[in-house]
Design a protein that fits this description.
single chain, alpha+beta, 14-stranded antiparallel beta sheet, 4 helices
């Protein structure tokens, strides 16, 4: 009976030991992915910012500039691309909408971001664009890969349409969540004017004819939860200038926007709560279950060997037989 039980335990030990790497290295990379229809929005604010008044073409201090960023999964477009890409694809239609303290639009830049649902690597397909201009992204944008590593990544900057390293700067605690801090600096770069300008009658083409150019620099900061690869907080120290041309008169340059853009408090709280809940699901597949199955397999193997050893142990010696006394003969 012991031998039969040991064989059953041995079979279970082999099963769970084999399931551990299978779950981590085969199932997890295929199961963990970004949903194609995901929608998310975020509101950021730059308090005490500097903003260009296009009426007088002078930079003025304002109480607040608000940036609303939305990302909407386009399921129809992703399914169309998947038929030729032979991989799970996510298409995000994004919009960065900036408004001044009076609620009027400062700029609106649409974007289409196409990437692999599992690895977050860019997928190059028709429609990949920023503000209507075709682009070919290299590197990540908006989200880091699942199980983010302590290393630098290539990160795409939509304003400059370039990819630059974003550097891992250390591990921190952000409101009870262990995060990796990343930072990227985009040096002063000449960038195109938005297709939609804040003043009626002024277009990107009409401004370009004056010889005036637009320049941009930023220091981008992200605090990323490494298991999910989701940023729980972000900031930008953002500056834009208009330089040269007849639009500025005799001035060499004027500040178009300058401010320290930070995520609004209510969005910080909701993002942290969401990431905490998603982290548990990803960690189950990536860490807890694989390690748990491995430990269980080792424990079952040890128990199987113990029962096998007990079944092979020599039995205790049988007690000596007592002879019955023989009757005395007469």
């Amino acid at each position: 009976m012991r031998r039969k039980a040991s064989l059953i335990l041995l079979a279970l030990a082999v099963f769970f030991a084999a399931l551990s790497p299978l779950l981590r290295w085969y199932a997890f990379p295929r199961v963990a992915k970004i949903p194609a229809g995901q929608y998310q929005d975020m509101v950021l604010e730059a308090k005490g910012a500097t903003l260009l008044d296009y009426g007088s073409m002078t930079a003025k201090k304002v109480d607040k500039v608000t940036v609303v960023q939305t990302l909407k999964g386009n399921v129809e477009a992703s399914e169309r691309i998947e038929r030729t890409a032979n991989r799970d694809v996510v298409v995000w239609d994004g919009l960065s909408y900036v408004q001044g303290p009076d609620g009027e639009m400062v700029s609106r830049i649409p974007e289409r971001y196409i990437f692999d649902a599992h690895t977050q690597e860019p997928v190059h397909a028709t429609g990949e664009s920023v503000d209507g201009d075709p682009v070919r992204r290299e590197g990540i944008e908006f989200k880091w890969p699942f199980l983010t590593e302590k290393r630098d990544y290539e990160y795409f900057d939509a304003q400059a349409r370039i990819t630059e390293p974003i550097h891992y700067e250390g591990t921190q605690d952000f409101r009870g969540v262990e995060v990796y801090y990343f930072e990227q600096t985009i040096p002063w770069t000449k960038v195109p004017f938005p297709k939609v300008m804040p003043v009626k009658g002024i277009t990107a083409e009409s401004v370009a004819k004056t010889g005036t150019t637009r320049w941009y620099t930023t220091v981008r900061k992200f605090w990323v939860e490494p298991v999910t690869g989701a940023p729980v907080y972000g900031e930008e120290i953002h500056r834009e200038e208009l330089r040269g041309g007849t639009l500025l008169g005799d001035r060499e340059k004027v500040t178009a926007f300058a401010g320290h853009v930070k995520m609004r408090e209510d969005y910080i709280r909701s993002t942290v709560d969401l990431v905490k809940s998603q982290r548990l699901l990803v960690a189950l597949m990536a860490t807890y279950l694989p390690w748990g199955f491995l430990v269980l397999g080792v424990a079952l193997l040890a128990l199987s060997l113990y029962l096998e050893a007990r079944s092979r142990r020599p039995g205790d010696p049988s007690p000596a037989r007592t002879r019955e006394p023989e009757p005395l003969s007469a």
